[in-house]
Amino acid sequence: MSDIPIVVLTALDVEYEAVRRLLERPQPHTHPQGTRFEVGLLAGGRARIALGLVGKGNQPAAVLAERAVNEFSPAALLFVGVAGALHSDIAIGDVVVATHIYAFHGGTSEDDGFKSRPRVWEVSHSADQMARHIAREGAWADGLDGKEPKVHFGPIAAGEVVLNSTTSPHAHWIRQTYNDARAIEMEGAGVAQAAHLNRSLPVVVIRGISDHADGTKESADRAQWQERAVARAAAFTAALAEALAAEEPPRRGPADTKETPEMSQTISNVAKDNARVGVQAGHVQGGIRMSAGREDPVDPAAAIAELAVRLRRARTAGQLDEDTYRAAEAELTTARETLRTTGPQDVGAVTLALKKVRGLVGDVAALSAEVASVIALIQGLS
């Protein structure tokens, strides 16, 4: 199992609880801006899940999905919840997996009517293939009560209204303009947009069908179809998360890095004056750049920003506890602010802050080595 987490987001409390019940010993994880996640393993340790609640609507879903991606650097982003079916062949309790998402509220209003201008995001090919394989095997539903639900693949329409009618003007417009959409909901477009803006991070939207968007929503809710539908969607989500995690290479833990420290992608040794750069190595990971000191120097602020990213990843991977992470993050903030506000740059103060960081993360050999390289870069400014 990879220790790179899979982010799973939900909109409703009933959806959140359905996923949370599948996790072993979930631990709270609070974002600096107050958003509270829970991180735990699927039963049997099959995948690490970072679970979050975004609330209703595409806008909060987009904001908190972006926040989760930056906080956890996940292997994939999954959104699980309930939806209304738009076709009669989809039964209540079935599962719909989006092949692409329509953000259907975009358009222009003209004298002869409303012209739709939707945005569309497709699911990545690899994630779609994985989901279809899981649906074909059917093992994902082994723990469910009753008959195995059918899994449907197709477009999902995401807007800002709850559709609960087949005769309203809005219902006619949805079914005429998006007649291939299999289900309708309120968050998928925001999640897909956030994933698209993060280097096309794989995103999958999984919906349990709790009603037919036909005026019967209240009676279906009283029959507890929300709870039953989302339990099925959560089961499929768990199987998909497990499969995605199995394809991710594991990050090195502290025990590994003591003997073979993980190297950053590129190591640059820049010689000054009459010195020359040379390399003698047995095994080399990443890139090596030979330079006589005539290249533009690495931006110190960018190097510290990269350290902050790697610090978060170490915390997410369990290599740093929360207190150590926050202390190191505070020192990095001090170093960054000192670089930005002092002129000429106070190399001594920045170096001191970075040395404190190195002391805090000393048990993580790879991260400590990276801090040391940035210290050397900063000292080269003097």
UniProtKB/TrEMBL annotation:
Gene Ontology cellular-component annotations: cytosol
SUPFAM superfamilies the UniProt entry points to: Purine and uridine phosphorylases (SSF53167)
Domain Nucleoside phosphorylase span(s) in chain numbering: 5-240
Gene3D superfamilies for the chain: Nucleoside phosphorylase domain (3.40.50.1580)
InterPro entries referenced in this protein's UniProt entry, alphabetically: Nucleoside_phosphorylase_d (IPR000845), Nucleoside_phosphorylase_sf (IPR035994)
One Gene Ontology MF term: methylthioadenosine nucleosidase activity
Pfam family, one: PNP_UDP_1
Superkingdom of origin: Bacteria
GO biological process: L-methionine salvage from S-adenosylmethionine; nucleoside metabolic process
Protein name: Nucleoside phosphorylase
Organism: Actinomadura hallensis
